[in-house]
Amino acid sequence: MSGVSPAVTMRPSILSKQVYGYLLLLPALVFLVAFTHYPVIATFWQSLLAGHGGSPAKFAGLQNYQSIMQDPVFIQSVKNTLFYALITIPLSCGLALLMALAVNRPCKGRGLLRSAFFLPSLLPMIAIANLWLFFYSPQTGVLNHWLNSLGFSSINWLGDPHVSLYSLMAVTVWREAGFFMIFYLAALQQQDTKLYEAARVEGASASHFFWKVQWPLLMPTTIFILINATLNAFRLADVIIAMTNGGPDNSTTLLLFYIYQTAFSYWDTASASAMTIVLLVMLATLAWLKFYFLDKKTWYQ
């Protein structure tokens, strides 16, 4: 009596399902490799070459990395970027959470208030830059007009090296807080209303309820917002081009802007590629730290 083992008959079926699954993933995988992994590999290879201003490229090893580490403008741009991220990320996320808590409660004009908070995120960055240039103008700016009316002297918001970077931070926080508020508001509205009722019955205060119930439930949303806020902080360039062009005295030169300047103004693509790899390593490290430390404290529903 001849027969075929059940394991043998099941194996082609399982294999065909696996092949079918990979075929479904193939279009997304092609785009992922073409627009993410390949550019990273090509940039890394470009960073190992030496060539400037159209001259023939030669393999140079880590020479470009040694060169940028000795570049004072690159070192300052890294410091500016880290400081910029350290200030803008907590402020944007904290303000977004406060706004979400404020508009989550029933009140008159809540829809209008939500729209007002979210409106800055809809404006193009160039329009935002020109709007804030009007506020920051040394002679006719609104901010200096208010300061003068209160008896204070005018401030050169974008021309003073000690103030210019903080002025850019204010623009970023103003724009991003409303965008992140939407995610916090959506997360708050998904929380079970029975939690509010149980806390009210137990006599829990609003602050105790927030820290013990709401905040732990918001941790997945917070991780998502932190990752996006970090990416936004490290990829800022258009506002700098429109408002300060990296000045004064490189006080507003952030890393991505300096990469753009090195590649397309100085035509030093090898050094720009090395800076890009450094930027990617910094972003990957920060993302890993966020997931490693915060993900352990996160409860996913």
Give an overview of the whole structure.
The chain crosses the membrane at residues 20-41, 82-103, 115-135, 165-188, 209-227, 272-293. It comes from Acinetobacter nectaris CIP 110549. Keywords: Cell membrane, Membrane, Transmembrane, Transmembrane helix, Transport. Belongs to the binding-protein-dependent transport system permease family. It is a multi-pass membrane protein. The chain is an all-alpha fold and 301 residues long. The chain has 2 domains: 6-47; 72-297, MetI-like (MetI-like fold). Helix content is 72%, strand content 1%. It is built from 13 helices and 2 strands; from the N terminus they run αββαααααααααααα. The protein has helices at residues 6-47, 63-69, 72-104, 110-118, 125-136, 142-149, 164-190, 193-202, 206-217, 219-234, 238-243, 255-264, 269-294, and strands spanning 49-50, 58-59. A two-stranded antiparallel ribbon has the order 1-2. A hairpin with a 7-residue loop joins β1 and β2. The radius of gyration is 26 Å and the shape is flat. The model has no long low-confidence stretch (mean pLDDT 85).
What low-confidence regions span 5 or more consecutive residues with pLDDT below 50?
A: none
CATH class of the largest domain: Mainly Alpha
The helical percent reads over 70%
**Pairing-aware structural class of the strands and helices?**
mainly alpha
Considering the protein shown, what is the CATH homologous superfamily of the largest domain?
MetI-like
Euclidean distance between termini CA atoms: 55 Å
How many structural domains does the protein architecture include?
2
Give helix and strand order, one letter per element, not per position.
HEEHHHHHHHHHHHH
Strand order of the largest sheet: 1-2
The chain-level mean pLDDT equals: 85
Proper CATH architecture of the largest domain: Orthogonal Bundle
Radius of gyration: 26 Å
